[in-house]
User: Fold this.
Amino acid sequence: MTDLAKIDLNLLVVFNDLLETRSVTQTGQTLGMSQPAVSYALARLRKTFNDPLFIRIRNRMHPTPRASALAVSTRGILEKVRTELLQFVDFDPKTTDKTFTLGMSDVGEMIFLPKLFRQVSEDAPGAGVRTVTLDPDSLAAAMEAGEVDLALGYFPDLQRAGFYQQQISVSGFMCIGRADNPHMKDRLTLPRFLKAPHVSIRAAGRSQEIIEKHFKTAKIQRRIALTLPHFLSLIEILPQTDLIATVPTRVAESLARNAALKVQPLPVKSPTFAVKQFWHRRFHQDPGNRWVRGVVRGLFQGK
Assistant:
């Protein structure tokens, strides 16, 4: 009995083509191999099956009875490999019922989710979208396991081996307060900024760490009057008080569109951070994952 471990699939490809062409030279041309390479493959086939397999008669390679008996099985094996092992599993957004799970902070949900959900609903009407907020280690494990397809936002802990990343945009920080906030009258100067009562946001997202560290390094001590865990609370808090908040630029713009709020630049140079989408290398070639990454890139990259 022939040892299965000794059978090279490439040899079966050569064998099958020799059956078709009956010519070492033509098989080489078809498969992009040199004539000596085809002859070497044939020698290995003969050794593997302990049979000449092909006999040259008047410049034609004629199969032996053993080769003819192997022909049907060989063609079946190669067809099975082509159709079952090598077939690319396509992804059709029009027919998929996949639910895409995205790792986001509440900032990500505020900034990206409305437009992203509309686009997914339009292009993939049967698909669903689910968002989760996880601590860094849990998020990394969930992405590795395929429980989370993408993380979108500022996730410095995912800049590690095993993860791909793609920059979507660069953000800075802005100040925001109600439209008639006396501390934001005209230009927000540094003395007005220091005198104003501030809201400090301690959200699950990591971007606020950047501005807090920046203020500490610059020795800027704000008067913190209120600390909140969520950005969305600012929609109700800021219009009713003289508080101001320092938040990422796109958060400030989004909040201002949804409430009577005014946005102004920081009175000092703003730090910046990169907003990216992350995915695990296990799913780098996954058609569904590639599709949703393309949607995110098309909607938000450079905007």
The mean pLDDT is 89. The longest helix spans residues 65-85. Residues 4-85 form a domain with the Arc Repressor Mutant, subunit A fold (CATH 1.10.10.10). The chain has three domains: 4-85, 99-161+279-300, 173-271.
